[in-house]
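QA checklist item 7 of 12: single-chain prediction sanity check.
[x] sequence parsed
[x] length recorded as 289
[x] structure emitted
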Amino acid sequence: MKDFISDLKQLIKVRLSFTVVFSASIAFLVGSRAQGDINWLNWAILTIGGLLVTGSANGFNEIIERDLDKLMKRTADRPLPSGRMTSGQALVLSLLMGLIGTLLLVRLNFLTGVLSVFSILMYAFFYTPLKQKSPIAVFVGAFPGALPPLIGYFAAFKEPFIDEIPLILFGIQFVWQFPHFWSIAWVLDEDYKRAGFRLLPTTRKDTISAFMVFLSAALLIPVSLLPTWYGFAGYTLAVVSLLAGLVFAYFALQLFLKRDLASARKVMFTSFFILPLMQLVLLFDFIKI
């Protein structure tokens, strides 16, 4: 049982799944504050359902890439390429997680359930195959990757509606993904090449790719200030976002100037912290409009 749980955690990429669920959970609490009431039972349903849906998408991703994972040092020990789990077992687990997770999210409202299914399909069956074909995969993958705050926000309402708040939450996470994934692709370039993944803007660690990392990191600064501009966050968020964004952009500028692995690692590790930091500050600095 211990080995099965360990393999399941690798199949669903548990750390990535919890990061995604964290984003959705924070957005749910923001949405709850926007309407003036927090339903903790619904928050728990969102958290469990979101974890299952994300795990399902990651499971499908590993099934599709099982042969490619054998070629990369970073992924060779995953349950499918190592042979500890069969594709059939992974498929059953992924289908069950996707079905149960979607049913849970549909209980909150229909739109939340539909978006969860859309995120699975986009991530597993559009983004995943594109990784070997074109750098546009990062752009395509940014859409399902930015859906968690949208799903979480809408989950807070019985009858969700679209206004500037969920769209801006989506936009911040959408823009963040470009420097995040491009810096990861830079750091893991040698491993990615073994599987034929083409994720850097030019498919190479060159000046243009480095400039795109810097440009996207710099673009995150004005986008992260939109909550304050539109009046649903205070100046605390603006100050934190500006300072964190400047640090992030500085590391990205260093990557552009030096084009070295150390600079790429700084961008990558900073990207891990900047998004949850801004989301947490937004939660506590939220202003109901």
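[x] summary fact logged: Residues 106 and 113 are 4 Å apart (CA to CA).
[ ] second reviewer sign-off
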